[in-house]
Amino acid sequence: MPITDRDDVNHLEAARIIALAGRIARREARGKSAADLEARVERILQKAADRETDKALIRRAAHEAARAARFEQKKQKAVDRATKKTGWW
Fold first, then answer.
1. Which of 1, 39, 40, 46 is the most exposed place for a label (fewest CB within 10 A)?
2. Are 17 and 42 in contact (CB under 8 A)?
């Protein structure tokens, strides 16, 4: 579950990113390259974005399926009412 509505990372991923940011800062302070750590951060962010996109698609599909089921139920009820024999016979 994302930390806020505006980001895709969950608490564990946020902790990993913060830890990697600290390692990146230390490596850059020593004058070393941190490209591999930055790539790991990007992979974490991309994985989180993909996961949240998939979740949104699943939620949307479930919502549409529920809506279609309600429509079919109402339609069937209307058909039953229309074809039901009424009267005093």
1. 1
2. no
Q: Which two tokens stand for residue 27?
A: 């490596």
Among candidate residues 5, 38, 8, the one with its CA nearest the CA of residue 23: 38
Cα separation, 2 vs 45, in Å, equals: 12
| pLDDT for the residue 4 | 74
pLDDT at 30: 96
Angstrom CA distances, 68 to 45, 54, 58, 63, 75, stand at 35, 21, 15, 9, 10
User: How many residues are present in the chain?
Assistant: 89
d(CA 40, CA 23): 12
